[in-house]
Amino acid sequence: MTATIDETFQRPVGELLRGWRERRRLSQLDLANQVEVSTRHVSFVETGRSKPSREMVLRLAEHLEVPLRDRNQLLLAGGYAPIYTEASLHSPAMLAIRAALRRLLKAHEPYPALVVDRWWNIVESNAGIALFTEGVSAELLKPPINALRLTLHPDGLAQRIGNLPEVRASVLTGLHRQVVSTADPELQDLYDELRQYSGGERTDLAAAAEVVVPLKLRHGDHQLSLLTTIATFGTPLDVTVSELMIESFFPADEMTAEYLREN
């Protein structure tokens, strides 16, 4: 069972660090070698026999690849002030980030591209997103629109996906990795919800036949084939920016490219 945020704040920093180490499948010796401290020191920190300094909390968090949001929680649990800001994407401080994202999205047209937050809610998109929203239930288009729910919901894009079992398996596998990596209860809830949607299971034969799973999407009388990539910001120091993901779709064949350019 995943701890709530309130429960996290009540837990000692050593216990939280141990949880992250175990989540990364590292032994105390592995972590000690990476951080260049003794195994004894790691053990004392985890059991509460030694209070880690602010710098040690950050060093351990960095080597454990703890997300910035959770690094702030570790600092709070250790008795230190958070160091990473968390500005709203619509705040004046984020003006340059928003402008850069919109230029990037615009430049990708006519192909679809969108920006999602940690929970896969769409925060920005270009005109190409109409390819995905056409014909879906109005309920799924109420803000915030969740990209994964939009994809796999029976009243969403799923009804037009020609290879739904493969796409479903790919989405669920990726989301499960994210749940394991972050231990985020909201992502766990989303994963549990998406698993309940119909769509079939990918067979071993289908899994072996694909190097990359394309999105085979019916649009009118055409079947389009799209590949997707995910990009993130490098070396972010703000929680919001660190959690943004830019998903860009590319035509997997010339027929799809020509169709999207002309429509």
Automatic annotation (TrEMBL):
From the broadest rank down, the organism's phylogenetic lineage runs:
Bacteria, Bacillati, Actinomycetota, Actinomycetes, Propionibacteriales
Cite the InterPro entries for this sequence: Cro/C1-type_HTH, Lambda_DNA-bd_dom_sf, MLTR_LBD
Looking at the record's lineage, which domain of life comes first?
Bacteria
Name this polypeptide is given? Helix-turn-helix transcriptional regulator
Which CDD domains did the record assign? Answer: HTH_XRE (cd00093)
| Pfam short name (any one) | MLTR_LBD
* SUPFAM superfamilies per the UniProt record, alphabetical: lambda repressor-like DNA-binding domains
Native organism: Kribbella koreensis
Show where the HTH cro/C1-type domain sits.
17-71
